[in-house]
């Protein structure tokens, strides 16, 4: 049990928000827009990279996959359009216990910040669909902080903007290895992996998880609530 935590930085898709394959479905639209044939060896290679880098800034992923900035921007635009359509179609839901965990953490006096690898437009689309505009103290995307995961920028931006005194007063939680790297690189005392999203326990622990939880609903207990 860890009690001296003042700031809790939570990932969204796969951690507090159900993904249910939406990222992969939206990636298919991006691949189609760039002429990558579904089922081809090239498509499979790209999809595997998307899976391995879940949690990373999506434009960074597309820059790696498609080579030029123009192609990456085209892919990103197609991805965002497809993801927004899925969200608008009602395929976006909170994970069980997520809202209650956030509310409990804030009621206990902790600051809660929601982070994402998506753009601000996509993050806001999700927050609006869930009615979560005011659920957290702050929301951050990679463009708000400098770099996305696996760099520590969003966690450190959260510390600065909430005026938290020390990195040792931070807990970070997410469903990907990149979330764990972000937490460890920021100096957070608690780096909790959850098993409701992209990566399994082995990957989460390899990338620095101090705790592995069945879901975000278990995090308040780890923090002494």
UniProtKB/TrEMBL annotation:
Superkingdom of origin organism: Bacteria
Concerning PANTHER family, the annotation shows: PHOSPHOGLYCOLATE PHOSPHATASE, PHOSPHONOACETALDEHYDE HYDROLASE
Protein name (record): Phosphonatase-like hydrolase
Write the lineage as a comma-separated list.
Answer: Bacteria, Bacillati, Actinomycetota, Actinomycetes, Kitasatosporales
